[in-house]
Design goal:
Blueprint (H helix, E strand, L loop, with lengths): L2 H10 L3 H32 L11 H4 L5 E7 L5 E7 L13 E5 L10 H9 L3 E5 L13 H17 L7 E6 L1 H15 L6 E5 L5 H8 L5 H4 L16 E7 L7 H10 L11 E5 L7 H4 L1 H11 L18
Helix pairs in contact: 5-6
């Protein structure tokens, strides 16, 4: 008698409740496997949900009285990324004498919904360069960790090409954008051309930990393709660091932000201690609004970074 026939005969002798329980267990196991397989193949759609926009996001359509202009960046793999440059009112005419923030946004939505960020940072006297990632807005390509790393380097080079000096540029990242900004800052610091600072908000130590928190019932560490391990490169960031996080953040828990902050050096190469700001009651997307004066003062103080005189600025800087 074959093994299958033997099992079938013995199975028929099981009590009814054992047969029902075994069938239920089989259904649950198969369902779990199906969900895990689906998550594996659909994870990038879940991680990068915004997708392409139906219309071109030109600055003229969204300016609304702002000093916006269209800018582009070209990646190493030949993609053209579109973005906006929002110039702060007043200040020097030449870009080399102005200050800029290269802003990397989160995974939801495109640059249209970040106009408030441009306004807030312009009000502090900083120009803002805000690009969409590949696959976002009108940009070609499909997002991935490797792709967003290429995008970050291209955006940095576009910032330099616009005339800004590295030591007058702060790299900012919010949520997923923090996992784009941190490795870029680490690379620049290692190359000897550090930015003026790194400003992070509502971000995590690694996507693996963030996804495990959201889906504790899945084997995330086995399934995840894009791991965005910011903590692994944080010790290479030698510029000034400011990090803010809401205590009521349910998407990226406070402890994941703290874990990243602990991985940064205690102080920058010029001796300025890193800054951690926990904002009581602020959620994932509400740090600027819900953080109120505490966040506004912390951000403003951090951005009062001394910059060199124009004749002291190096002309050759950036990533190879």
């Amino acid at each position: 008698m074959s093994a299958v026939a033997t099992f079938t005969a013995r199975y028929a002798e099981w009590p009814w409740w054992a047969r029902v329980s075994s069938k239920l267990l089989a259904v649950l196991v198969l369902t779990y496997l199906f969900v895990a397989i689906a998550v594996f193949f659909l994870q990038r759609r879940m991680m990068f949900p915004a997708g392409h926009s139906d219309v071109r996001l030109t600055a003229v359509d969204f300016a609304g009285g702002r000093g916006l202009s269209d800018v582009t960046a070209t990646t190493d793999d030949g993609l053209t990324l579109h973005g906006w440059l929002g110039r702060a009112p007043g200040g020097p005419v030449e870009a080399g004498e102005r200050r800029a923030i290269l802003y990397f946004h989160g995974n939801g939505g495109d640059r249209r919904i970040r106009l408030g960020e441009i306004d807030a940072l312009n009000a502090l006297g900083w120009d803002v360069l805000l690009f969409d990632y590949r696959g976002y807005g009108e940009n070609p390509g499909s997002p991935s960790e490797d792709g967003l790393r290429k995008d970050a380097r291209a955006c940095w080079q576009a910032t330099l090409a616009a005339g800004y000096s590295p030591d007058r540029v702060v790299i900012a990242g919010v949520s997923l954008g923090g996992a784009v900004a941190t490795p870029l800052a680490a690379e620049l610091c290692e190359s000897g051309t550090p930015p003026a600072g790194l400003l992070l908000r509502s971000t995590f130590d690694s996507m693996t930990n963030a996804a495990s928190n959201r889906f504790p019932w899945l084997p995330v560490r086995l399934l995840l393709r894009d791991r965005f391990d910011s903590a692994a490169v944080a010790d290479r960031v030698a510029c000034r660091v400011f990090q803010a996080h809401g205590t009521a953040d349910r998407i990226v828990p406070l402890r994941l932000g703290r874990a990243l902050h602990a991985a940064f050096p205690a102080e920058s190469a010029d001796g300025v201690p890193k800054t951690w700001l926990a904002l009581e009651g602020a959620g994932h997307n509400g740090v600027r609004r819900q953080g109120g004066r505490a966040y506004a003062v912390g951000e403003r103080d951090f951005l009062e970074i001394p910059v060199p005189a124009a004749d002291e600025v190096a002309t050759d800087a950036g990533l190879d």
